[in-house]
Amino acid sequence: MSETVSEKVNAGLTFVQPEHFAAPKGYANGAITEGRLLHVGGQIGWNSQQEFECSDFLGQFAQALDNVLAVVEAAGGKATDIASMTIFVTDLPAYRKAGKDLGPVWRARLGRHFPAMALLGVSGLVEEQALVEILAVAVLGEKE
User: Fold this and answer.
1) Inside any domain, residue 121
2) Would you say residue 2 has pLDDT above 50?
């Protein structure tokens, strides 16, 4: 397990913070249960310094996936450990328009791994510039 995993355990949880991410305020990026389930907090399309580099859906989707993977990897996991994802989008037409362009973005990060997923259209996210937010659950291997 990476040194980016917090050593503080609270009620059976170990909190995960990728070392290159800006410090979260009022939330955790991930939490591992004693049973080795990693719950990845909602990741949006901003960079590790909490700045948006892309204003388009496809760019933010790619960055949100990268952020999910950064949390999974910080916990000692890999992309294929992701068991489920819930994807929230603020603009369903933009998601549909991205269509075929989403495939290469996905495969570059997760290959042909497709976890159980849900896609939800929402009226907005807390960060006004955010177009997508992804929650994930990963099943991690045995603790090293």
Assistant:
1) yes
2) no
